[in-house]
UniProtKB/TrEMBL annotation:
UniProt-recorded name of the protein: D-lactate dehydrogenase (cytochrome)
Domain FAD-binding PCMH-type: 39-267
Keyword Iron-sulfur listed: yes
Cofactor names: FAD
Family, per entry: Belongs to the FAD-binding oxidoreductase/transferase type 4 family.
Length: 976
């Protein structure tokens, strides 16, 4: 129930913000209120704020009604600092502006920018931002700055505090301080003279207290995010500088960071990694100290014996990491960076020499091969999910991070391990950023009984005593204080330090309305309240730890729900079904979940590619959809596919005719009305092409067989033309390209009737899907001469479907199946000559190409054909097979940032899925075409290479068209 205060606040706020951005229903407040921590607070109101004026209004009304606010970006925080039972304000959508300054030396970022996107922007300059948390592909800048996040290479000198150049911050009274604007700073010094005077007084107290001053220096020699950044009080004299640096790591409790300007750091291109095994932990840790003193390494990750055992099943690890290792064994994962290959070899030699003085049990040797290095880092990255994936259902996965003085690292590891044994957290693992003495530990407590909560409480008490008192370390090295360590801040900092922190909080937030109970709390048990329970929901998703890493990959993020939110709500629904505690709430959630959860899920599985435990939430949504109610019709379509595709081409012809007669806008309105009356009738996006010409005849094979390729023409490419005007066919372009490469295509029997079965599988029409697969299998075996000839699959989703079916034993293992991207990169590009290049090309990597591991191959072909390539981070465009025709708002939402992500100079795009190309062209304003057309337009046969005529044009065949015809207003694709 919403309190009267919140009702009045909402009524006032409704006069300023549109209703669709004020969320109060139980489905969305629970969904949006979830973060990565192990706390569950459900906000009474969720506000989707889009600009500073709206945040200022929120602050003003919050003070008027005495309502607490919590501002949040991505919700990847681990310690409870991004949840609220009052008003949660989301600052992600609309807060994504980036501005590169001084040729990459600095970058100005709004809080909604994903950290990895900032680095992508800086990559051409050879720079990156300093903070590098493991969540950087999901975490947003606002949270990274507000938590002073660091990471594996960041250390203590490249975090937000030390790389801050300028800050734009809004205080609790709505005043904006922008330190990049001298006039603003001058006005602030006058308007807030008293606040600055108080800050100077607090700084004087910190400096004159010799014991506290020494403690501050000691604490920030380590990684430390426990409490407020008291180092600001002794590092700076100007109170404006003190203020801005106090905001870093303040977790939204002192003000709102509206933008931050970072001094960037070099992103050295040459890197190498090695794994080193030690039989003794003490020796391992002494090596860490020596490596830190040497200063040649960029990252050193420590992995304890339990952690090694947890990931011994991972493929690609050196042999010495397997088997029965000594109980005291530990490993180091070491990475070195350099600006050039010669400097890198110098670092490698120096580090190897140093390591051998510690007589390691085994070394993998440094590798510069990115694939090998990625395998090594998979060891480290797999540790969190190693616990999360095997924890008992109903338990929670907790990851905590502490820092010990590096010279006492081995003692710290032993101390933590002893506490795990004492409190029977037998699954716990220890690993971390060893150079900084920063250790993470992962364990799986259950919060389903008072006894379990007490066990957790006693454990935290013991950890706090060990780390903060016995070792003088940091209880929170890089994850932020949050709720979990708020009761222990005084223990770590002492009375004097804690008193300064309380004074800081009162000075900036006298009413206590900004993110209450975070960092500073009057509740000694705040870390034990509102603990998150993860009840069983379905085996497909029960291992979910609600981290949110999946969210940037989801095209329905912002339209309905994300994978994390779908799981959170399904858990709640299942719990309500079991306990029967609130039938009204259950009915409301069930009623809304159908569209928000199931119907709007793209079900492409891209969430699994970002998930630490590999969960495909789409698989659950497909399961909940149930068997197709139109299974019999699907089987009839499958048996008569050639006729159905022909009918579809007639429909596309009618669409083209209508557009030519009454225009695109009127046609779209008529199409939308018809769809409402007949839901199975698709809604054609603006870039829907005309009908494809019939498949061209295949050329006569040459005498030898080594140049023959079986060409599988997908039904989507038999239906839609390669060009918007229609009348051509992708096969024509492909055959011409093959001819340049000396390859001869051959068709399987009855190619116009075959289908991979994906449309039927997506609709849960299992019988039709299996029948289509069986007929395709038989035809491909005949055409390939029982597997002797390679099979070219011309559409990425279809190729993935067939390749995965073969892996599952549903397709003959003898078939040599080639995704088009892989075949073009490996067997065509090396055999042709690139004679033209575009100035700039946009590339979209479809879900299927990404999941097939062919992203790099696609980019390699694109870069051969263009001087500059832009590949926006759009994991899934949301067209999702037929959903782009039946649920166009999903595609529009998935591509809402595409147009802004493409430079004006970029006039053409390429993708490997025909339906994706339709959506991309519609929402980008640029023509997206096939990889085959791109390569055909940009290449010629190599001089002296055998040339096979693609085919003799029949009366129905259409000569190839250049990609330039995709948009008559665009510059030619084949520019010199």
């Amino acid at each position: 129930m919403m309190t009267p205060q919140h009702q009045a606040f909402l009524a006032d706020l409704s006069r300023h913000l549109p209703a669709e951005r004020l969320l109060t229903d139980p489905l969305r407040t629970l969904a949006y209120g979830t973060d990565a921590s192990f706390y569950r607070l459900v906000p009474q109101i969720v506000v989707l704020a889009r600009n500073e004026a709206e945040v200022a209004t929120l602050l003003r009304l919050a003070h008027h009604h005495q309502v607490a606010l919590t501002l949040r970006a991505a919700g990847t925080s681990l310690s409870g600092q991004a949840v609220s039972d009052s008003v949660l304000v989301l600052v992600n959508e609309g807060w994504t502006q980036q501005e590169v300054l001084d040729e990459g030396a600095r970058i100005r970022l709004q809080p909604g920018v994903i950290g990895q996107h900032a680095n992508d922007t800086l990559r051409p300059y050879g720079r990156k931002i300093g903070p590098d948390p493991a969540s950087i592909a999901t975490a947003r800048i606002g949270g990274m700055a507000a938590n002073n996040s660091s990471g594996m290479c960041c250390g203590t000198r490249q975090n937000s505090y030390h790389t801050l150049h300028a800050l734009r911050v809004m205080l609790a009274d709505g005043t904006v301080l922008d330190t990049s604007d001298p006039a603003n700073v001058a006005a602030f010094r006058i308007s807030h003279a008293e606040l600055l005077k108080e800050l100077s007084w607090l700084a004087t107290q910190a400096r004159e207290n010799s014991a506290l001053h020494a403690k501050i220096r000691h604490k920030y020699r380590l990684k430390n995010t426990t409490g407020y950044g008291l180092n600001a009080l002794i590092d700076f004299d100007d109170p404006v500088d003190i203020l801005t640096h106090l905001m870093i790591g303040s977790e939204g409790t002192l003000g709102f960071i509206a933008s931050i300007t970072y001094d960037t750091v070099p992103d050295l291109a040459h890197k190498a990694s090695t794994l080193v095994l030690f039989d003794e932990l003490d020796v391992c840790c002494r090596a860490v100290t020596a490596l830190k003193e040497q200063g040649r390494v960029a990252a050193v990750e420590l992995v304890d014996r339990r952690s090694i055992a947890a990931v011994q099943g991972k493929a690609g690890m050196p042999a010495f990491m397997y088997g029965n290792l000594p109980s005291d064994a530990a490993a180091l994962l070491i990475e070195v960076h350099a600006g050039d290959a010669q400097a890198l070899q110098g670092h490698i030699a120096a580090v190897d020499t140093l390591l051998h003085t510690f007589s390691p049990a085994a070394l993998s040797g440094f590798s510069t091969d990115p694939k090998v290095c990625d395998t090594y880092w998979a060891l480290r990255k797999g540790l969190f999910p190693a616990v999360g994936a095997v924890r008992p259902v109903g338990s929670t996965c907790v990851i905590e991070d502490v820092a010990f003085p590096v010279e006492r690292l081995a003692e710290g590891v032993r101390g933590l391990t002893a506490l795990f044994d004492r409190f029977h957290y037998d699954e716990a693992l220890v690993f971390g950023h060893a150079l900084e003495g920063n250790l993470h530990f992962v364990f799986a407590p259950a919060f389903d009984s008072d006894a379990e909560v007490r066990r957790y409480s006693d454990f935290m008490d013991a950890v706090s005593q060990l780390v903060a008192v016995d070792f003088g370390g940091s209880l929170k090295a890089e994850h932020g204080t949050g709720r979990n360590v708020a009761p222990y801040v005084k223990l770590e900092w002492g009375e004097d330090g804690y008193a300064l922190m309380r004074s800081i909080k009162r000075l900036f937030d006298p009413a206590g309305l900004l993110n209450p109970d975070v960092i500073i709390s009057d509740r000694d048990d705040v870390h034990l309240a509102d603990l998150k329970r993860l009840p069983a929901a379905d085996p497909i998703v029960d291992t979910c730890i609600e981290c949110g890493f999946c969210e940037p990959a989801c095209p329905s993020n912002g339209l309905s729900l994300t994978p994390r939110q779908r799981i959170v709500l399904w858990r709640r629904i299942q719990q309500l079904r079991r306990d029967g505690s609130d039938p009204t709430l259950l009915a409301e959630l069930e009623a809304e979940y159908g569209w928000a959860g199931v119907d709007t899920c793209a079900a492409t599985g891209m969430c699994a590619t970002r998930c630490p435990v590999g969960i495909n939430t789409g698989a659950l949504m497909k399961q909940l959809k149930g068997p197709s109610p139109h299974a019999a019709m699907a089987s009839r379509i499958e048996r008569n596919l050639g006729t159905v595709v022909g009918t579809a081409r007639m429909g596309l012809g009618a669409l083209q005719l209508a557009r030519s007669m009454v225009g695109e806008r009127a046609t779209h309105k008529l199409n939308t009305l018809a769809h409402k009356v007949i839901p199975v009738l698709p809604i054609a996006p603006a870039a829907t092409p005309g009908p494809a010409a019939p498949l061209p005849p295949a050329p006569t094979p040459a005498a030898t067989e080594d140049n023959q390729v079986v060409y599988f023409a997908s039904c989507v490419n038999r239906c839609f033309a390669e060009s918007p005007q229609g009348g051509d066919n992708l096969a024509t372009r492909t055959f011409n390209l093959f001819a340049k490469a000396g390859l001869t295509p051959v068709y399987p029997p009855n190619p116009a009737t075959l289908c991979c079965g994906q449309p039927f599988e997506s609709a849960n029409a299992t019988e039709a899907a299996q029948s289509a697969l069986a007929r395709t299998n038989a035809a491909l075996l005949v055409a390939s001469q029982q597997g002797r000839l390679p099979v070219y699959l011309d559409n990425a989703p279809c190729s993935l479907r067939l390749i995965e079916a073969q892996r599952a034993g549903q397709l003959d293992a003898r078939l040599q199946l080639f995704d088009a991207t892989r075949f073009l990169a490996e067997r065509v590009l090396p055999r042709v000559a690139v004679v033209r290049q575009l100035d700039h090309l946009a590339v979209h990597v479809p879900c299927a190409t990404s999941k097939a591991g062919q992203r790099d191959a696609l980019l390699r072909v694109a870069r051969a054909c263009a001087r500059q390539v832009t590949a926006p981070d759009i994991a899934c465009c949301g067209f999702a097979g037929s959903k782009g025709f039946t649920l166009p708002e999903l595609n529009a939402n998935g591509l809402r940032h595409l147009r802004a992500a493409l430079p004006d100079a970029c006039e053409h795009g390429v993708s490997t899925s025909r339906t994706c190309q339709i959506g991309l062209s519609t929402h980008s304003g640029r023509p997206y075409a096939s990889l085959e057309a791109l390569l055909d337009d940009c290449t010629a046969a190599r001089p002296g290479a055998a040339f096979h005529s693609p085919h003799t044009h029949s009366s129905t065949a259409t000569p190839r068209r250049p990609m330039t015809e995709h948009a008559t207003t665009s510059a030619p694709l084949t520019q010199d």
